[in-house]
Amino acid sequence: MTELLEQAIAQLKNLPPSEQDAIATMILEEIDSDKSQDVLAKLAAEAMAEYHAS
Fold this sequence. Notes:
3 helices; globular
């Protein structure tokens, strides 16, 4: 696991369970849809931006 992913997961652990599940669902759907790694990275960045904005 990369350091960036470890940081993201550590921060996600501080969110309420419903928000953790929502982000996990988005990530899993992107992985399952066989989209490019760039799209997945963009989603992760957007999720982190939303987290920091709240």
